[in-house]
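Format notes (please read before filing issues)

Several people have asked whether sequences and structure tokens are stored in separate files. They are not. Every record keeps both together, in the order shown below: the sequence lines, then the token lines. Line labels are part of the format and must not be stripped during preprocessing.
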Amino acid sequence: MCEATMFFTTAQLCAITGVPAGTLKRLRAAGSVLAARPGRPGRGHADLWSPEQVLALAVARGLRGCGVPAADAEAVLRFLWDLSAADLRRHFRAGRTCLMLVATPGGTGCLPEFLPRAAILDNEAIDAHAVTALRLGVRPSALDVEAVWHFIQKCGGKAGGAGGDNHDATIMGQSCRSDSLPTP
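Then the structure lines:
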């Protein structure tokens, strides 16, 4: 299926990301998010969401579930929302596949920037001060956005926006629901 013509219905988006439909409706009403193809009033004219939008919402929702403050999760949402599939592939090919989360006693922060996994987890500067960092309660971890992207691609969508609603999709035995998403 061609990425450029793949879309997800609101029901699919909610099933994949775990974002409640009411929350998505409130975000739309506030102007925070807009579907790639907004639906028309009436039955059978659902909003259609791009894979990039599903990725942005899935990652932001996952970050909030990990205790990341709303402001950080929103910054990541905006960062990912503005990327095209070509931008994502370019980052992934360059080995920049992860977002860095830093857990501290004050909370967990996340910067909206792609980094290579090794730059986060195998960083000599962090390793050299590991005892101090751990004593202070600072623990970096990586959220593999590329894995989430592949999961969303595997879940499919509706080619060109046509076809039935696939709310509880199973692709090659892989459940396409939010509780199946890769976790950090």
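For reference, the curators noted about this record: The two ends are 28 Å apart (CA to CA). Strands lie at 6-9, 48-49, 98-104, 107-110, 139-144, 158-159, 170-171, 174-175.
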